[in-house]
Design a protein that fits this description.
Pfam families: LytTR (PF04397). This is LytTR family transcriptional regulator. InterPro entries: LytTR_DNA-bd_dom. The protein is about 20% helix and about 40% strand. It is of the alpha+beta class and about 130 residues long. The protein has a 5-stranded antiparallel β-sheet with strand order 5-4-3-7-6, with helices on one face. Strand 3 and strand 4 form a beta hairpin. The longest helix has 14 residues, at about 105-120.
Length: about 130
């Protein structure tokens, strides 16, 4: 059975976040900022490594939809709209393009994400 929510909890907060609403999680030191599709942001006092463990324990194989991009970003691959290596940007959007969020990462991290996404979609580049 596919789980559609993740429970995020620390000593003072708890949230049930639908996976189809979670665009990405950014890091600010020992804080994780959860960016939702409606523009809402929630901050929890734990690092991204702790969140990765939550994903694995609650979602199992479904956790693969979340990809660590560099040191301070985890994205939901289902929302990847545009990857721009030159600008070092990743644009995440819903399927109707009503909500778009652009986040930055290192050039190597963005390039690595592009390679991962091409493999995921089994995309073959044609040489021109």
């Amino acid at each position: 059975m596919r789980q559609h929510n993740i429970i995020i909890s620390n000593t003072s907060q708890m949230a049930k976040i639908p996976l189809d609403c979670l665009l990405c999680v950014t890091s600010d030191g020992s804080y994780s900022i959860f960016n939702l599709i409606d523009g809402t942001k929630y901050t929890f006092s734990f690092n991204l490594h702790t969140f990765e463990k939550m994903l694995e324990s609650q979602l199992g194989l479904e956790a693969e939809r979340f990809i660590r991009v560099g040191k301070s970003l985890i994205i939901n691959r289902d929302f990847v709209f545009m990857i721009d290596i030159q600008r070092k940007e990743i644009t995440l959007a819903d399927s109707e393009l009503r909500c778009k969020v652009t986040v930055g990462a290192s050039k190597d991290a963005v390039k690595s994400l592009k390679d991962i996404m091409e493999r995921y979609f089994n995309f073959k580049r044609k040489k021109i």
